[in-house]
Amino acid sequence: MMAKLIVISGPSGAGKSTVVREILSTCRQPICLSVSATTRPPRPGEIDGESYHFLTLEQFAAYRERGEFLECAEVFGRGDWYGTLRQPVQASLAEGRHVILEIDVAGAKAVMAEFPGVLSVFIHPGSTAELERRLRGRNTESDASIARRLAVAAEELTAVGLYQHVIVNHHVGQTVEQICRLIEQGEEHCTKN
């Protein structure tokens, strides 16, 4: 079976990171997570090359100019850039490992345009009310930040039709099981759910 490039997107609070973490630990396939690059400074406990590839604005711009990103964008209007470096993804695929890109909708559109055969999954929270409940339950953000995330989510939810699969994340275990099955299937079985 050929290694697959897998795009997983969904609004902040839908549970993407938890789902991806569980996929990496439970799927029987050789699989890895693409480590994104960013210009934001590391947070306490983050490790360069594991949490993110931490780059200066100048380094990021140079990579961008050389076309070394599969996708990249300035995020949340704060001047911080995020992107997926092309070389580590291609190296992992060449080694026979499936590669997960946990990226936003804009990044997913760019990757799907370049790689039409990508396995694409949108993690849906079920409803906007459920999404807000999850965001508030984190107790990590201000009301203004939650409002901004909900506004972005409303726009992202309009893009679900671009994805091969839309999975409502009611139960992490079930969501992970569904995605592991999709990864194990041949490309010919990838259809919209």
Can you walk me through this structure?
With 193 residues, the protein is an alpha/beta fold. It has one domain: 3-Layer(aba) Sandwich (Rossmann fold). It has seven helices and nine strands. Strands 2-7-1-8-9 form a five-stranded parallel sheet, with helices on both faces. The protein has a four-stranded mixed sheet with strand order 4-3-6-5. Helix 1 (16-26) packs across helix 7 (172-184). The protein starts with a strand and ends in a 9-residue tail after the last helix.
Average pLDDT level: 91
Portion in strands: 15-25%
Overall CATH class = Alpha Beta
* Major sheet attributes: 5 strands, parallel
Q: Distance N terminus to C terminus? A: 22 Å
Please name the CATH topology: Rossmann fold
Per the principal axes of the C-alpha atoms, what is the gross shape?
A: globular
CATH architecture: 3-Layer(aba) Sandwich
| DSSP helix fraction | 40-55%
Strand order of the largest sheet: 2-7-1-8-9
Task: Count the domains.
Answer: 1
Topology order in helix (H) and strand (E) letters: EHEEEHEEHEHEHHEH
Parts with pLDDT < 50 across at least 5 consecutive residues? 187-193
Give the structural class. Answer: alpha/beta
